[in-house]
Design goal:
The complex is a heterodimer of chains A (268) and B (270). Chain A has 268 residues and is an all-alpha fold. Chain A has helices spanning 3-19, 22-40, 48-81, 84-90, 95-131, 142-169, 173-199, 205-217, 227-232, 240-265. Chain A has one domain (3-265). Among the domains of chain B are: 33-126; 227-268, no CATH class. Classes of the chains: A mainly alpha (268), B mainly alpha (270).
Chain lengths: 268, 270
């Protein structure tokens, strides 16, 4: 594998995102979310800063998700459908380099979106902290807020790796979209479902094992949800952040390796 | 070109008349009387499954909806509507149990207007598992146990908790008074005066002031009854006897608009 090839494809993917005016879209979305926050705050009596933080983190999550569903996923599907992948693979670029380059390029777009979405959001939080100093949560910290925001982006990367995996197996764009939506919903709720299942006295051992298996296959996106930590400064278990970082990194690694494996054997 | 303009104007007129018709459909005055069905609200587990990481936002939306409803309900609203509002607040709480506002709204409305102190207490008690740094929640629970349920020991337990979290010596001494003296009149007045200082809402302040004034009347009458007992060696048969015997010039006015009276040896005001 040559790093140059990977970077070249990453840059191409990034430029493709820019061509599709993703920066404008994300900026507009950030501003709309800031306006929505401003309009919503009069309904809230006390926990004003917490609501602003919620809106901010939601904007990051929703922005990243929209990029995955409206840019990354169609981009991957169109590579095959419109046969653009042939142009890339006909040059001296291996399929593994193509996958890594594409993933890196989309990650760069998501990172830019994270930065853009954070600007109006952080300004809004700052504005409300100045305006309502008495309503700042007791254990609030900027570093906690930024960490929560970063992990939203990180969760998007983990989810993106799963989308790559699904795309490498399925040919139909519709199927990839449906499978991705289901994976997202499962990923967000698997912790709750697992807790309920493991504590259930009526559920059989087979069902419990099945749920346990599902929790290993799908990305557990609930781990990266640090809203409560950011909004209230609630203590996390020891080494939690490093654990989820390692989990996310290893999940992405495994998913990309499997994607390469299937994509290499795919009949294009 | 002219045709397009005419079509646009007609479409706009249709939109405006539809909008006007809809806005006339449910005037605010009858909003409170419209019966609502809490059974139609979605369940927490369903919402959590669908909303995933956006659950705190859904909590905000339910709270906003609930506060609009609460603002439009009056005392004449049917019980179903209060049940509906309570369920909306439960959704707001369960979607994000750390969110302070649902607890505040429930405490500010439910024990006072629809007279649901028990439900309020159970609502607030759930929040104690989450908002462990917040001294206001146990304070509310302690207040509700004292003011509405008349359970002084339980009240004292929560006030102690509040004093410990908020590092508040006043609250601590008050809790101990309630615990050991069983909630006598002086303690009641002191406690309610403390509550009054922390209350901003005008209606709630008025309600508390009424109770303080009623207790002040009880305090005065208790003193007079004690004098009567010392002088005649027995309880007066009625409070009017205190006036007849010249111990007090007249019975104090009860803010609850019923005369103070004796019932099984205790002075009653409500």
């Amino acid at each position: 594998m040559r790093l140059n090839n990977i970077l070249r494809i990453a840059l191409l993917s990034f430029k493709e995102g820019l061509r599709q005016k993703v920066i404008y879209g994300v900026s507009c979305f950030g501003l709309i979310m800031a306006a929505a926050t401003y309009a919503f705050i009069p309904f809230i009596g006390f926990d004003i800063c917490r609501v602003v933080i919620d809106f901010m983190l939601m904007a990051v999550s929703a922005g990243c998700l929209m990029i995955i569903f409206f840019l990354c996923l169609p981009g991957l599907v169109n590579d095959i459908r419109e046969q653009t992948v042939y142009f890339v693979l006909s040059s001296p670029v291996s399929r593994e380099e193509y996958i890594l380059g594409r993933f890196l390029g989309f990650s760069m777009i998501l990172f830019v979106a994270l930065v853009i979405l954070n600007v109006p959001a952080l300004l809004m939080v700052k504005l409300y902290i100045i305006k309502y100093p008495g309503y700042v949560p007791l254990h609030f910290g900027w570093h906690k807020l930024l960490l929560a925001s970063f992990f939203k982006f990180y969760a998007a990367l983990v989810f993106l790796s799963f989308v790559f995996l699904v795309w490498s197996i399925m040919e139909s764009g519709v199927l990839v979209s449906i499978a991705s939506i289901i994976a997202y919903l499962i990923g967000q709720n698997i912790n709750t479902v697992k807790d309920i299942a493991m504590n259930s006295k009526t559920m059989g051992i087979t069902a419990k094992n099945l749920i346990s298996l599902v929790s290993w296959i799908f990305p557990n996106l609930g781990y990266f949800n640090l809203n409560t930590y950011a909004a209230y400064g609630v203590n996390l278990p020891e080494h939690y952040l490093s654990k989820i970082f390692v989990y996310g990194f290893s999940y992405m690694g495994v998913a990309i390796v499997i994607t390469m494996f299937f994509f290499k054997r795919r009949d294009l | 070109m002219i045709k397009k303009g005419i079509v646009t104007i007609i479409a706009l007129l249709f939109y405006a008349s539809g909008f006007y018709w809809l806005s006339q459909d449910q005037p605010i005055e009858t909003f409170s009387a419209t019966r609502m069905n809490a059974g139609l609200l979605p369940s927490v587990s369903f919402l959590k499954t669908v909303c995933g990481e956006f659950t705190p936002l859904v909590s905000d939306v339910f709270f906003a909806y609930g506060s609009v409803l609460a603002g439009n309900f009056d005392r004449s609203a049917p019980k179903e509507n209060w049940d509906y509002l309570f369920q909306v607040m439960k959704l707001a709480r369960d979607m994000d149990p750390y969110f302070k506002d649902p607890y505040r709204l429930v405490q500010g409305v439910f024990p006072w207007i629809p007279r649901m102190p028990d439900r309020t207490i159970s609502f607030l008690e759930k929040g104690l598992d989450f908002r462990k740094w917040d001294s206001i929640l146990p304070y509310y629970v302690g207040f509700d146990y004292y003011f509405f349920a008349g359970k002084y020991r339980k009240s004292a337990r929560y006030l102690f908790m509040s004093a410990k979290i908020g590092n508040d010596p006043f609250m601590g001494s008050l809790a101990s008074k309630i615990a050991y003296r069983g909630g006598d009149v002086d303690t009641g007045i002191t406690f309610l005066t403390g509550v009054l200082k922390k209350t901003l809402d005008e209606n709630t302040r008025n309600t508390i002031m009424m109770r303080i004034n009623a207790l002040k009347g009880v305090k005065l009458l208790k003193k007079a009854v004690n004098i009567y007992k010392k002088r005649y060696g027995r309880m007066p048969s009625s409070l009017e006897e205190l006036v007849a015997k010249g111990i007090i010039r007249q019975l104090p006015e009860n803010p609850y608009r019923i005369p103070y009276h004796l019932e099984a040896g205790r002075i009653r005001f409500d």
